[in-house]
UniProtKB/TrEMBL annotation:
This is Uroporphyrinogen decarboxylase. The lineage of its organism: Eukaryota, Metazoa, Chordata, Craniata, Vertebrata. Its main location: cytoplasm. Belongs to the uroporphyrinogen decarboxylase family. Catalyzes the sequential decarboxylation of the four acetate side chains of uroporphyrinogen to form coproporphyrinogen and participates in the fifth step in the heme biosynthetic pathway. Isomer I or isomer III of uroporphyrinogen may serve as substrate, but only coproporphyrinogen III can ultimately be converted to heme. In vitro also decarboxylates pentacarboxylate porphyrinogen I. InterPro entries: UROD/MetE-like_sf (IPR038071), Uroporphyrinogen_deCO2ase_HemE (IPR006361), Uroporphyrinogen_deCOase (IPR000257). Pathway: Porphyrin-containing compound metabolism; protoporphyrin-IX biosynthesis; coproporphyrinogen-III from 5-aminolevulinate: step 4/4. Keywords: Cytoplasm, Decarboxylase, Heme biosynthesis, Lyase, Porphyrin biosynthesis. It catalyses: uroporphyrinogen I + 4 H(+) = coproporphyrinogen I + 4 CO2; uroporphyrinogen III + 4 H(+) = coproporphyrinogen III + 4 CO2. GO terms for cellular component: cytosol. Its EC number is 4.1.1.37. It comes from the Eukaryota. PANTHER family: METHYLTETRAHYDROFOLATE:HOMOCYSTEINE METHYLTRANSFERASE RELATED (PTHR21091), UROPORPHYRINOGEN DECARBOXYLASE (PTHR21091:SF169). It comes from Takifugu rubripes (Japanese pufferfish).
């Protein structure tokens, strides 16, 4: 990553319901219909940039567009979140999935949204594309929605390991095509969300998540390299602190961190092999602005200025005060400028 005067900062879910203008644009429209409108996605992506001096944009979309592309029905139910009326129950249900997905056709609307947004940003900040990681998507496809225990999906790992690998492989192939399509459409960095890593232990993570995360980065990078291209890739495996060493050697330039790891030990454990991103507890945004500023200062001192992207340890919540988000961004810029040059 390049040296910058201040530490770059963006927030997961920076386009979201905490912004009144987001709620207004989304009003009365189905969530996935919104995702299928390039104009709406572009508008929602740009909204947080009009308010705050973020250093990156992330395309408005959702990780669950991939299960949809595989032929599954996914609804966003108000007050409940994503819901699959017919989740996968047993390995034979895999036969109902689309074996050969034409990503350029099925997910064309995301690519259009990226191209439109990239033009509208006019080079002011880079545009990040993203995908859910295989295990996280698999867990939604089996659970049929959010879950505390993920026990239905984990049951597959223990009872049907072969079918699990088949599904994970199928998802990986689609994700690789999807991410390459996003780069071709104009994405300038890619983040892979393994949001449900924390529900796995180190052994299961090594078998059912890590190999696929690695495969995705390696295949995307190899393909880009053939065309003389290269873009930074970020892996965010939430609550996978047990895997930090492995994640720092997985072909990703950046490892995103949740707030359960302290910055200094994350630096030590990743040994300068990668840049780090994160990791303020989103709930710290409920604190008064002065307190946010202190927390940010400490976080910056822990990570150091070099090879660091400031962010939260997970997404913003809908009841957060936009003013405090602004205070977070300003604190990152201000404190990091004052820190001066650092090794
Ligand atoms: C704003 C939003 C999104 N998705 C959902 C919402 C809220 C609903 C609404 O607006 O109506 C439903 C929406 N979509 C999902 C959920 C989580 C449900 C659950 O509890 O399991 C909800 C409420 C599933 C989802 N979707 C996503 C993840 C991975 C990140 C994470 O760990 O939070 C996950 C797990 C990715 C995602 N989703 C979204 C983005 C946009 C870009 C940005 O960050 O600004 C991104 C990157 C957009």
């Amino acid at each position: 990553l390049q040296d910058t005067e201040h530490v770059p900062v963006w927030c997961m879910r920076q386009a979201g319901r905490y912004l009144p203008e987001f709620r207004k644009t989304r009003e009365g429209r189905d969530f996935f219909d919104t995702c299928r409108s390039p104009e709406a996605c572009c508008e929602l992506t740009l909204q947080p940039l009009r308010r705050f001096p973020f250093d990156a944009a992330i395309i408005f979309s959702d990780i669950l567009v991939i299960p949809q592309a595989l032929g599954m029905n996914v609804q966003m139910v108000a007050g409940k979140g994503p819901t699959f009326p017919e989740p996968l129950k047993e390995p034979e249900d895999l036969q109902q999935l689309q074996a050969k997905v034409d990503v350029s056709k099925e997910l064309d609307y995301v690519f259009k949204a990226i191209t439109l947004t990239r033009h509208k940003i006019e080079g002011k900040v880079p545009l990040i594309g993203f995908s859910g990681a295989p295990w996280t998507l698999m867990s939604y496809m089996i659970e049929g929605g959010g879950s505390n225990t993920h026990s239905k999906a984990k049951r597959w790992l223990y009872r049907h390991p072969e079918a699990s690998h088949m599904l994970l492989k199928m998802l990986t192939d689609v994700i690789v095509q999807y991410l390459l399509g996003q780069v071709a459409a104009g994405a300038q960095a890619l983040q892979v969300f393994e949001s449900h890593a924390g529900i796995l232990g180190p052994v299961e993570f090594k078998e059912f998540s890590l190999p696929y995360l690695r495969d995705i980065a390696r295949r995307v990078k190899d393909k880009l390299k053939e065309a003389g291209e290269d873009i930074p890739m970020i892996v965010f495996a939430k609550d996978a602190h047990y895997a930090l060493e492995d994640l720092s050697q997985s072909h990703y330039e950046v490892v995103g961190l949740d707030w359960t790891i302290d910055p200094q030990s994350a630096r030590e454990r990743t040994g300068g092999k990668v840049s780090l991103q994160g990791n303020m507890d989103p709930c710290a945004l409920y604190a008064p602005k002065e307190r946010i500023s202190q927390i940010v200062k400490k976080m910056l001192e822990g990570f150091g200025k070099k090879g660091y992207i400031a962010n939260l340890g997970h997404g913003l919540y809908p009841d957060m005060d936009p003013e405090n988000v602004g205070a977070f961004v300003d604190a990152v810029h201000q404190h990091s400028k004052q820190m001066g040059a650092q090794i």
